[in-house]
């Protein structure tokens, strides 16, 4: 070094942006994103889709769960820049017009929430979980890995263990999901 500024060094304070076409709940959003931006922040702060919640922002609570191409992801750990042309579904997109998703109806019928903060993540996670089970994916409590998983309460609890509920509505959440699974 000769004492002059090294202009070849990357400056972390300068955002790097990328143009994307996001598809969320069947709507298209042409958007320019900072490559460090999480999907949760894009949804909540820029698209005004505030259903997914920021509980921990560290991948630990599941309140931010959404679906990407039908599979559940924690949006606080997912960089938006990776989602060009992927199909994102949030809790706002689960209903079919005015008809709630069967899981939404079951959550109401079983009183499966108290404050409701975790509920959008629980619902999206349950949708993804039911698809995983229908595709034959075992969990660590599946007794017979070669047979189609049967969604009893133990299976549902295990498969939903990434979604915490600080109100402790677990018993009713399991009952609601169990009804839809049957
Ligand atoms: S906010 Fe994403 S897991 Fe808690
Ligand atoms: S209903 Fe309050 S955190 Fe789950």
From TrEMBL:
Alphabetized InterPro entries for the sequence: 2Fe-2S-bd (IPR002888), 2Fe-2S-bd_dom_sf (IPR036884), 2Fe-2S_ferredoxin-like_sf (IPR036010), 2Fe-2S_ferredoxin-type (IPR001041), 2Fe2S_fd_BS (IPR006058), Aldehyde_Oxdr_Iron-Sulfur (IPR052914), Beta-grasp_dom_sf (IPR012675)
Domain (2Fe-2S ferredoxin-type) ranges: 18-94
Alphabetical list of Pfam families matching this protein: Fer2, Fer2_2
Biochemical pathway: Alkaloid degradation; nicotine degradation
Keyword hit for tRNA processing: no
Keyword field: 2Fe-2S, Iron, Iron-sulfur, Metal-binding, Oxidoreductase
Record protein name field: Xanthine dehydrogenase YagT iron-sulfur-binding subunit
Coiled-coil segments on the chain, per record: none
Gene Ontology molecular function: 2 iron, 2 sulfur cluster binding; metal ion binding; oxidoreductase activity, acting on the aldehyde or oxo group of donors
UniProt source species: Streptosporangium canum
């Amino acid at each position: 070094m000769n004492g002059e500024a090294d202009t070849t060094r990357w400056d972390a304070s300068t955002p790097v942006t990328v143009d994307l076409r996001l598809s969320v709940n069947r709507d298209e959003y042409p958007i320019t994103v900072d490559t460090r931006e999480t999907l949760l922040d894009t949804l909540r702060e820029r698209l005004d889709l505030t259903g997914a919640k920021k509980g921990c922002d560290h991948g630990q609570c599941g309140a931010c769960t959404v679906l990407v191409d039908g599979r559940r992801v924690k949006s606080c750990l997912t960089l938006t820049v990776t989602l060009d042309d992927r199909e994102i579904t949030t809790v706002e997109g689960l209903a079919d017009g005015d008809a709630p998703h069967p899981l939404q109806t079951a959550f109401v019928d079983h009183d499966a929430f108290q404050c409701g903060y975790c509920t959008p993540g629980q619902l999206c996670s349950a949708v993804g979980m039911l698809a995983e089970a229908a595709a034959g994916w075992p969990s660590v409590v599946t007794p017979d890995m070669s047979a189609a998983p049967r969604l009893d309460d133990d299976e549902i609890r295990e498969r939903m263990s990434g979604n915490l509920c600080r109100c402790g509505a677990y018993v009713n959440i399991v009952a609601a999901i169990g009804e839809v699974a049957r």
